[in-house]
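Q: I'm writing up a methods section and want to include an example of the input and output format. Could you take the sequence below and give the corresponding predicted structure tokens, formatted cleanly so I can copy it straight into the document?
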Amino acid sequence: MGIVREAIEGVKQLPQWYAQRVEARDKRLWTFGAWDGLRYSDNSRALFEYTLANCPDIRAVWMTKSQKVYELLKAKGMPVELCTTEEGKAVQRKAGYFFLTKGPDDSEPRLMHGCHLVWLWHGMPLKQIGRDSMAFLQRNTLWKRFKTSFRKVVVPWQFLSGETLSSSPFFTPFLQSAFGISENDVWEVGYPRNDHLFKTDVTEDIIIELHRRFDRRTDSGEIDRAKLLLYMPTHRDKTTREGHVFDPFQQAGFDFAAMEEVLEAKNIVLLYKGHFFDSCNEGLQNASRIITVTDDDYDDIYTFIKDVDILMTDYSSVYFDFLLCRKPVILFPFDMDEYVTFSRPFYFDYKLMDGKRVFSWRELAEALKNDDYFVPSEQTLRLMNTHIDNNACQRVVEKVRQQISNT
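A: Here is the clean output for your methods example:
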């Protein structure tokens, strides 16, 4: 939408926007949403389900723009509203709190004036995010700065702010810079979704099926349990700008036969889970031990992640979460120079990322062949995670209750 058209549409909405400011909000009506209102996932989901189970005095409602998500939650008897219906709009106008994962568009931002926002967010930052990434990607010219200032007047709902979560003091300054907030607005309580990494009573069906399929019996009759290696690369802004998705199997000297050979010899299954924005990448076809995993293959991704044996990633925030599992990590930053030049710079030196480093598929094959990978140090774990437990949801709720009691 051009800036003139956006301004015209925005001005039409301004009376309704400012009228909300005098409307009463119910601080015990909490709404939740994720990923532009299209998914039921992430930190918002974890906190929503915790609130339903543990906070009988709170009315928790999931807000969605997806008919599929709406019908799914309705079938489970969970409180859910479509953002576009009159019922959904009424709930959002009344809600005292909105917990979001990606941004205000996780619900309907034009109905949030006076609503308290808690940005649960979706990953501790290695790469620049928020205002910092926009300044880099847009090359902050005089015109860009003028346009941003103008938009704050005509579409103020696109510039909402609130508290956000941090996993440790290490990340807090980066989050302050990214979201333009004070230190007091950063709650160092950990991520709600990480509570699922500590679940011992739930195993995703895909994990059970993979072991049924690939575990094998040795000559001595013992079970050779397959190792599950999960590869989760981050999104590349450059690929989106160029109109295509990121495909690691077309880069870094990928050799299909050589990789399948070492995976078979070591009884390893390579699971490829692309970023949400690259979800249309189907990975490899007709590969016996390189399997593409999609959101349809599990109920909750963090319940799935906890049961893999090794994580491989590059610049993804899943690294910081997976540290809590105290399992091996392989870092695969084969395009780091290109990434920081054309996608996003880093907040800190990549050398702080503890794990086995490989820069090509050949190096990865050698590392797997020789069992040359390791668990990151306890020092790294505690630098990047203050809390090593399953109580993040509880801490978020306590913070909100304290805030309510002080107002």
